[in-house]
Design a protein that fits this description.
With 569 residues, the chain is α/β, with parallel strands linked by helices. It folds into three domains: 185 residues, 3-Layer(aba) Sandwich (Rossmann fold), CATH 3.40.50; 167 residues, 3-Layer(aba) Sandwich (Rossmann fold); 126 residues, Dehydroquinate synthase-like - alpha domain (Dehydroquinate synthase-like, alpha domain), CATH 1.20.1090.10. Helices cover 50% and strands 16% of the residues. The longest helix is centred in the C-terminal third of the chain and has 21 residues. The two termini are 38 Å apart. The relative contact order is 0.09.
Length: 569
């Protein structure tokens, strides 16, 4: 998860320097090396610099000279190193204790605070004998005290705060790069090109070798995503995630004739008492009235707190069932069983639940994680072509914002995906779930990084609301929205014309519209202002900077108007 540090209005890019601060074990050296490589900058570790200057290890300096002498040496090194140009500097955990060092860090570069919990620090440093401050009888107590003293100082100097959690370096890079200015990010393009070309060749060979289960790592709220053929008839798999004896299946009038009996029989075979709730189909039905219908049945059937709700259907059913589960008796377990491509690659993963309001899409809801996601790819065989295309928009999105090699693969295989090639779809689903799961792990409640998953959605949600829910499918609106966001990214100089055109071409090849409806400029602006990402009346957009990397930012209105003029039919 990432966030702008309190009171920091803008980033400092003096000399193109990046300075990493945080407690010992927060990942400063690991992240620093990766960041320097990505941005083609020189990496320096201040502790290593001290050891080179003295010819002694940090523990030995502490033992012979004491901490006060070490801190003076550290301050001298920080003074010297921050005066250099175009570096990534990993500082020692206590570097911020010196007021002059804090001043140098704040004024000579962009400071990134890598924040980690006490538990994480304890785990990462438990076997490290090179931390002199932790050589005590109670390292946890020491870390807690260090955190108490240093946390305000880290926040004081930081321009960006990144929660490392259980770090995946690739996604930490994405989180950082999404907030750095162009002075830092332009240099990475050439490096990415080589990586992308190599990765492109290896993806096809991975199609048949991926496993069927992956995990969304959220600590106590973690859950598996199982992807495979003919899972709806697997009574053991379904029952595994049902804690109690009662189940309520929520579905709609389109899915029910296809799969409701099969799922009910599987659960009954496992000894579960099943209640069936069938709602009307369509985005326009994602409202309070139908949510109440779910509650009506649950209450009439005297469903208790151990009743598990199962969302059997697409994104609308998944969102509504999840919201019902979050609210009923203040929370009951639920399972996502997505039956559309869009729900399998996106909406079923991550715990976003809710309903629409006439004034805005998904404006009422809750973050509430499922017990499991069970994606039976065989359900895609009955999926209409328009619904399949709608789902492909979210697949394209994942490649565009995070994984350029995946985008390359999508381009090369879009024909197979449209034709429902089983192997291609299996890979697309898995890779999309991997990407979303890792983003959600870092930012469960959309405090920063997770917002990049809304690429194309600011425009797309405006289309849905402006046309009337259900006129355009969600994926159709998002696909067109991505074309508009790519156009805006190009106008701001973040991507070249070729990349903009590639995005439009692959969206079109997926069977999605690339020309936006004419809602009128004032109506467009009005609808885009009703967006959860917006702050202080500013419309925020997810933009590509470059392909495979994204940034969240407001844009000059003149640029936005140019995009509307160019993309609206």
């Amino acid at each position: 998860m990432s966030a702008a540090a309190p009171g920091k209005e803008s980033l400092c890019n003096v000399g193109g320097n990046i300075f990493l601060v945080g407690l010992m074990g927060a990942g400063k050296t690991t992240v620093g090396r990766a960041l320097a490589k990505r941005l083609n900058k020189r990496f320096i570790d201040s502790d290593h610099e001290i050891e080179e200057r003295t010819g002694a290890t940090i523990p030995l300096i502490f033992e012979i000279e004491g901490e006060a002498s070490f801190r003076q040496r550290e301050a001298e090194v920080i003074r010297d190193l921050t005066a250099q140009q175009d570096i990534v500097l990993a500082t020692g955990g206590g570097a911020v204790l010196n007021a002059e060092s804090r001043a140098y860090l704040k004024s000579r570069g962009t400071v990134i605070y890598l924040r980690a919990s006490v538990n994480s620090i304890v785990q990462r440093t438990s076997h490290d004998k090179n931390r002199p401050l932790l050589q005590t009888g109670d390292p946890r107590k020491t870390i807690e005290e260090l955190s108490r003293i240093r946390e305000p100082l880290y926040n004081e100097v930081a321009h960006i705060v990144i929660d490392t959690g259980r770090p995946n370096v690739q996604f930490l890079m994405q989180s950082i790069l999404s907030q750095l200015g162009p002075e830092h990010t332009q240099a990475q393009t050439a490096v990415q090109q080589d990586h992308h070309s190599l990765a492109k060749h290896s993806m096809t060979s991975q199609l048949s070798s991926t496993s069927n289960t992956l995990h969304v790592d959220l600590g106590a709220r973690s859950y598996p995503i199982t992807i495979g053929q003919s899972l709806l008839g697997d009574s053991a798999l379904l029952a595994e995630h049902v804690a109690g004896s009662r189940v309520a299946i929520v579905t709609n009038t389109v899915v029910a004739p296809l799969y409701l009996a099969q799922v009910s029989k599987s659960l009954q075979a496992a000894g579960k008492q099943v209640t069936e709730i069938v709602l009307p189909d369509g985005e326009e039905e994602k409202n309070w009235v139908n949510l109440m219908k779910v509650f009506d049945v649950l209450l009439a059937e005297k469903c208790d707190r151990k009743t598990t709700l199962i969302a059997l259907g697409g994104g609308v059913i998944g969102d509504m069932t999840g919201f019902a589960a979050a609210a009923y008796m203040r929370g009951v377990p639920f399972i996502q069983v997505p039956t559309t491509l869009l729900s399998q690659v996106d909406s079923s993963v991550g715990g976003k639940t809710g309903i629409n309001h006439p004034l805005g899409k998904n404006m009422i809801g809750a973050f509430y994680q499922p017990q499991a996601v069970i994606a039976d790819t065989a359900t895609l065989n009955t999926l209409p072509a328009r619904e399949l295309s709608s789902g492909l928009s979210e697949v394209i999105k994942h490649g565009a914002i995070i994984d350029a090699p995946f985008f390359d693969w999508i381009e090369a295989n879009i024909g197979k995906l449209v034709a429902k090639d089983a192997e291609a779809l299996a890979y697309a689903i898995r890779r999309s779930c991997e990407i979303k799961a890792d983003v959600v792990r870092q930012d469960e409640r959309e405090g920063g990084l997770r917002a990049i998953l809304n690429f194309g959605h600011t425009f797309g949600h405006a289309i849905e609301a402006g046309m009337g829910y259900g006129v355009w499918l969600h994926g159709e609106a998002v696909g067109c929205g991505m074309v508009m966001a790519a156009d805006l990214s190009h106008r701001l100089g973040f991507i070249d014309a070729q990349t903009r055109d590639r995005i439009a071409a692959v969206v079109k090849a997926a069977g999605l519209p690339i020309v936006a409806p004419d809602l009128g400029t004032e109506r467009w602006l009005e609808l885009m202002e009703v967006d959860k990402k917006n702050e202080g009346g500013q419309i925020k957009f997810i933009l590509l900077k470059p392909l495979g990397t994204s940034v969240i930012m407001p844009v000059p209105q003149e640029m936005l108007l140019q995009t509307l003029n160019a993309c609206v039919g």
